[in-house]
Amino acid sequence: MPIAAASIGQVHRAITRDGRAVAVKVQYPGVDEAIAADLANSDLIFRVMGMLFPGLDPGPLVAELRERLGEELDYRLEAENQARFAEFYRGHPFIHVPEVLPELSTGRVLTTELAVGARLAEVEAGWSPEERSLAGEAIFRFVFRSLYRLHVFNGDPHPGNYLFRPGGRVTFLDFGLVKRFSAAEVKLFESMVRAIALDRDAGAYRAILEEAGVLTRGAPLSDEQVVAWFGHFYEPVRERRVTTFTHDYARSTVQRIFSRQGDMARYGNVPPSFVIIQRINLGLYSVLASLGATADWRGVAEELWPMTDGPASTPLGREEAAWLRAAGRRRSARRVSASHPGPRQRPGLP
Predict the structure, then answer these.
(1) What are 214-231's pLDDT values in tens digits?
(2) In the Cβ-directed half-sphere of 229, how many Cα atoms lie within 13 Å?
């Protein structure tokens, strides 16, 4: 019997011959042909979107989505993605990514260590507000530390992709839809945050959007209008205060992205590097709203933003800071060991 349903497969519990408990994800037969057919028919959909949103260039958007969704069919690539996350977060005090068993994985079968924990619906219904907020903070840290430090984003913040344990311990599942960003793309995101949240420079923020192709150059909008519209997406981190993610905020965020009303429908665009990251607005904020996650999100963000690299602002932050220090010491020790190998032994000597 399957223990879970993935987007394009089923997950089964199994025991390896050497006694390890594992989760085995098996791709549904024929799903690759079905998705290929859907992607072949996607041009019409995006041409219609281009008519509804005159500022949108659908070509790069189609290409980006086709590439990402095509990658999701290859479980070998998913195994590589998951292994990269698992290696980076190995030993983390509250973020857990199951280890991959590559010798038991193929293009259509993915085998990982078995993880256990509560599902989101159980947490939402029965856990205390404090525990729900710790879980939300762990998810927030995972998403933005991965983006800014690892330069990768797991683009499927689906409610079924988390397993929860008390104390903010969260296991992250399903790495089929992962976007890897270049250093230049991450610097772009950093510059946007700096302009709108740190420097509060409306002109600089607008110039960054125009350079990135998010906003039509010379659009008949004031800098203040641009910041008023885009500032909504940064609302939880624009200043130091305790804020709760709500479904009203999540809904209004989605409405802004898909609204056909107003100037942004005419002058706004979604360049390729922004396509998958919109899942933060479409999925992550909804999950945090379901948890009613409450924190000083600006304080947490300043720990994660490379341009601030702030001190720990919460108990989870202090746990993470200790892990980062220990990881740094291990890296330093490996570098020293590599640059100062032990004395060579002469042949015949013990």
Answers:
(1) 999 999 999 999 999 999
(2) 20
